[in-house]
Amino acid sequence: MIPFSKVGDVLRELSKLTDFIIIGDTVLDLELKRKGTESDVDVFITSISVFTDEDRIDAFSEEHGWDLGKTPIDTPRLMIPVDDEQLQLDLYENIQDFFVPPIVIESSLEKKIGDYTAKAIILEDYLLLKANAFRDEDEEEIKNIVKLIGEGKLSIDKEILSKHVEYFEENSNSVKDRLNSLGIKF
User: Fold this and answer.
1) Which residues contact 109 (CB under 8 A, 6 or more apart)?
2) CA separation for the pair 21, 109 (Å, rounded)
């Protein structure tokens, strides 16, 4: 596990390159008040582009001694040594089928990650993004969240879900159906 104190240090460095919002599994880690992350950190970048600013990202990575790779959708992945482990920091923006509606960005909240404060999407929007992507691992993650809600370890605001799902445009009905089928009723 990579402690959030170290993740916060990495995110502070990233903030020197671009503004961003945390969108991935780290959202759930923070909601559950975990001390660190077992997975990568997914961020949606908002002040540069993964495509038109590729040279800046390359130079930033090289300057920090971090390796640069690619995510499954061909956006940059920074691979950062942290103690004896490696933190993957995946950079995303809206491309092809990867879509984060503006309301998701606007609704993000500041969260403390170690000594650093970063914006992260809310749990309701995390669920909507998972239901929109709906890969096998996303379905399992939603089932896990439904279980945690049932145990009283998490709670969601269904009014926010109902409002925000509409911003997924042509996918909104599919997203609703997927969540309903997994136990999150609108």
Assistant:
1) 119, 120, 122
2) 9
Q: What is the DSSP letter of 88?
A: E
CB atoms within 10 A of CB 13: 17
The tens digit of pLDDT for each residue in 4-47 reads 999 999 999 999 999 999 999 999 999 999 999 987 999 999 99
Residue 59 and residue 149 in one domain: no
Same-domain status, 100 and 30: yes
The answer to whether position 60 is within a domain reads: yes
Tell whether 96 is covered by a domain. yes
What are 64-80's pLDDT values in tens digits? 999 999 999 999 999 99
Rounded distance, CA 69 to CA 88, Å? 9
Same domain, 74 and 144: no
| SS3 state of residue 135 | coil
Q: 34 to each of 12, 129, 177, how far by Cα in Å? A: 19, 21, 30
Q: What is the CATH number of the domain that holds 75?
A: 3.30.460.40
The HSE-up count of residue 27 (CA atoms within 13 Å, CB side) is: 26
**Together in a domain, 98 and 112:** yes
Q: How far apart are CA 149 and CA 166, in angstroms?
A: 23
Cα distances (angstroms) measured from residue 114 to each of 6, 16, 37, 140, 185: 7, 17, 12, 28, 35
- Structural domain count of the chain: 2
